[in-house]
């Protein structure tokens, strides 16, 4: 079950948003299938562009001020103390990363994303495998074009090393892998 949700905050400390995360329809309250004893899934809560526009139209019709952009509206919604506010807003979730895990392990990103799907968690797509620099650059270009058609704003592609043992060997900086 969803036991705890928090924002990334400053990288050390974030805000507890469990009460609001439980209202997001794309986050299942109970996961399907075989679960590890602990699974920390990292992801993005967002407001789809169309839903954001409709919400602002409704706010305008009700004499309320419009939100500036979906990112700020989402962040403000997640910090609300009343979960009814979050439940009334068109928030969605996509998983993109693995945090802590106990009782199971994954060798690579494919195993992890397959697990997300088997548990009923929505995940970030597309996931493109590239085994050369040329394929990697092509994948980045493909995602750069496709991102303009997504239902939400994104800055671009994220490149990940597929094998978790190689990620570990490469190490991490304070906020991101090397």
Short structural summary:
The protein has 7 helices and 2 strands, in the order H-E-H-H-H-E-H-H-H. The protein has 178 residues and is α+β, with helices and mostly antiparallel strands.
Explain the overall architecture.
- The chain has 178 residues and is α+β, with helices and mostly antiparallel strands.
- It is built from seven helices and two strands; from the N terminus they run αβαααβααα.
- A two-stranded antiparallel sheet has the order 1-2.
- The radius of gyration is 18 Å and the shape is globular.
The overall pLDDT average reads 90
Report the sheet with the most strands, covering strand number, pairing sense and barrel closure. 2 strands, antiparallel
Distance between the termini: 32 Å
Q: Please give the share of residues in helix.
A: 25-40%
Strand pairing plus helix content: what structural class?
alpha+beta
Tally of helical runs: 7
Low-confidence stretches: none
Q: What is the β-strand count?
A: 2
Q: What is the string of SSEs from the N terminus onward? A: HEHHHEHHH
Morphology: globular
Roughly how many Å is the radius of gyration? 18 Å
Keywords:
178 residues, alpha+beta, two-stranded antiparallel ribbon, 7 helices, 2 strands
Secondary structure elements and their pairing?
Elements: H1 18-21, E1 38-46, H2 49-61, H3 70-78, H4 83-87, E2 92-102, H5 109-119, H6 133-146, H7 164-170
Antiparallel strand pairs: 1-2
